[in-house]
Write a structure and sequence with these properties.
Structural class: alpha/beta
Number of domains: 2
Number of strands: 11
Strand content: 15-25%
Radius of gyration: 23 Å
Largest sheet: 11 strands, mixed
Helix content: 40-55%
Number of helices: 15
Bound molecules: zinc ion
């Protein structure tokens, strides 16, 4: 049967290399035969059976999807048992796509976590992870940021470096500590191969359907083990009431376990996005200090031109706070700025589907708090409540197609 064999885990200080070999039908799926994770600290004392977890979780969904086998020499027994439950949770989430395949460890190791600390938080700086931070900050979580898009460590990724710097600064300000890891996990499985062979039946991408959450949680495991941390927290990104299948789901994430009592908590799935905004705003008000977040889909900083930035600015305004205290640096009055963005970009923004989910929770708050707002906020709210987004989108699309007509035509004709 075709398989992937994890040949060797090589640790040198803070750098971990996983050398593996793929056979048969699996070969074309891999862009490399080495997965690497570079932590910020020495990992040489972490047992191999725990270090194997991130490799296994990064690769195993490909075995499930292709009915193949993953072989590893040693695996943490608790992690293995939890992986079976993770597998069933995924199968329930994707009933249209049979998940088969298996993993065969050569040896089970019963590691026991020596608990010294409560929490590690997978922290990206966005609204979800900030909400979870505020909810668990009494436990002084170790904030952990993972960057997975390195092809090699010599790659320069300024956005990733900026993210890591921001997390470190945030942790310092909050009086807790932080750590980070750089890895090639997101590029090990070839996107093109998955899109061609599996996506047509499966219906989702490798990254979104399986990879991101399984990688993030398990890359944190060796670090959590080393520090005796009981729970890995991952912030929910699917708001209550929104049906979505996604690798990061309450039913899948919550099943992960390691080293006896180590676990994973998928936090905040009972909240809608506006309740997360309220949680962060309430905390910011008690400190009286700015609380910069980075919610943007375009990394590095808030672009203040995309749907996510708009939605968050609107949500913050509904709670009557100055958005500039939260990392949105808009010079012009809000109404003027967004009116200008809509006239340039409405056709490209995805307001239609997202707005239905998020705006109903924001609009009542805008109305309730209207009287407490300053003139700039009131002008912005008046403009928003009267703006015809569907019309702007239609007109924007027409404008976009007129402008790019020949480019699109060329693309369609493969010229
Ligand atoms: Zn943005």
């Amino acid at each position: 049967m075709d398989s992937v064999i994890l040949k060797e885990i090589k640790v040198s200080g803070n750098h971990v290399d996983y050398h593996f070999e793929a056979t048969g039908i699996l070969k074309p799926y891999f862009s490399t035969n080495t997965l690497f994770i570079e932590y910020q600290e020495d990992m040489s004392m972490v047992p191999e059976s725990i270090l194997a977890a991130p490799f296994v979780a990064n690769i195993i969904p490909l075995m499930w999807a292709t009915n193949t086998i993953l072989w590893v020499k040693e695996l943490d027994h608790t992690f293995y048992e939890s992986l079976i439950r993770v597998y069933y949770a995924y199968q329930r989430m994707y009933p249209h796509f049979p998940l088969k395949g298996d993993i065969f460890p050569g040896k089970f190791i019963d590691n026991q976590l020596d608990v010294k600390r409560e929490s590690l938080l997978l922290y990206s700086g966005g609204l979800d992870s900030n909400c979870t931070y505020v909810r668990i900050r009494d436990t002084k979580p170790l904030l952990f940021n993972i960057q997975g898009w390195y092809k090699s460590l010599t790659d320069l990724d300024e956005a990733a470096d900026a993210d890591i710097r921001d997390v470190n600064n945030f942790a310092k300000r909050e009086g807790t500590d932080s750590s980070s890891a750089k890895s090639n996990f997101a590029v090990v499985v070839k996107r093109t191969e998955w899109e061609k062979k599996i996506r047509p039946q499966f219906g989702d991408s490798w990254w979104h359907g399986f990879n991101h959450s399984m990688a993030f949680i398990t890359i944190a495991m060796p670090l959590a083990y080393k520090h005796g941390i009981k729970n890995i927290y991952i912030a929910s990104s699917v708001p209550m009431g929104e049906y979505a299948t996604c690798a990061s789901h309450i039913t899948t994430d919550s099943e992960f376990r390691f080293a006896g009592v180590g676990g994973c908590i998928h936090d905040g799935a009972e909240l809608v996005r506006q309740e997360k905004v309220q949680t962060v705003v309430t905390y910011q008000k008690t400190t009286g200090k700015p609380y910069p977040m980075c919610v943007c889909s375009f990394k590095g900083h808030n672009c203040c031109e995309c749907e996510k930035c708009f939605r968050t600015v609107l949500g913050l305004t509904a709670e009557v706070v100055d958005i500039r205290d939260f990392g949105f640096y808009i010079d012009k009055p809000l109404k003027e700025h967004w009116d200008d963005v809509m006239s340039r970009r409405a056709g490209l923004l995805t307001f239609k589907s997202d707005s239905k989910v998020h705006w109903p929770y924001i609009i009542p708050r805008l109305k309730t708090n209207y009287d407490k707002m300053n003139q700039e906020q009131k002008d912005f709210v008046d403009w928003f409540l009267n703006f015809d987004f569907d019309k702007a989108r239609r007109e924007g699309l027409v404008k976009y197609y007129m402008k790019n007509f020949f480019k699109i035509l060329k693309k369609k004709l493969h010229l």
